[in-house]
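User: Can you predict the 3D structure for this chain?
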Amino acid sequence: MEASILIVSHDRKTELQKTLQILEDIINKDKHEVRVFLDGSTDGSQELEEDFPWVYWYSSEKTIGASGARNILYSKAKGETLFGFDDDAHPLQKDFIARTKNLFRSNENLGIIGFQEIKGIYETIPEELFVIKVEYLTNEFLGCGFAIKKEVYEKTRGFPVWIDIYGEEVCVAWETMIQGYDILFTSKIRVHHRVNKQTRRELGANYLRFEKQLKNTTFFYFVYYPFPWLIIKIIKLHLHNFTKYALKDRIFLKQYFKAGWNILKGLPEVWQFRRPLSKNTIDHIKKMKTPLY
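Assistant: Here is the predicted structure, written as structure tokens:
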């Protein structure tokens, strides 16, 4: 199997359906597989199994989070190259698999290729969004569209089970670089992320993201940062979020303390995954360019 396209979805039946319809028209089912994990979906997404019988379906009754779902899903993949897309994102080039293979072939040390994200709701994407052409080595990738070699993914610890959602891509990126592989960000492959930022903001996504990112960033420091730098980073992180957000908004304040409680509960489990890097290694990674957001 040449490629596995892997999607985790939670309560986005319509968006998932659109993504699968687009993929069905551009992939070769003899060489490419699609696997979908429904993470505690309650909106009838399971009904799509009848419409797309060629897709491999997995599900959990309770929501386990995108990272845990990806951890399960990626272990099932058979392709030489693993493609990750959000349920509301799709590749804009029909030959995205061939382009990815060519890029991997041109640099054997590449472990991950991150695709350029075009974010927004468009019937026709404005031409000016295609003007930017970039390609450089980076220290992370966007979860809405990327590819990783299966052999490289299997050398890492995979998507972390100690993170639920927000921040899991950075862990895979660091694990990949620890193994000596590079990450490429390129506009040669673009992904349309069909996200309405205003709608998500109105639904309170910023509050959810605040709590999850505060918790998961704290866990990230505990896993990868050495003492005493670890303590310094955590103190700065929590002071920044308390003064900039929690003191100015009652809901942020509530989420701040919720994150603190979840950190205390989850720390014993997270500590089992601790793999501290040297300060020089971390400084080298952090000095690298980041993808365009």
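The first helix runs from residue 13 to 26. DSSP finds eleven helices and nine strands in the chain.
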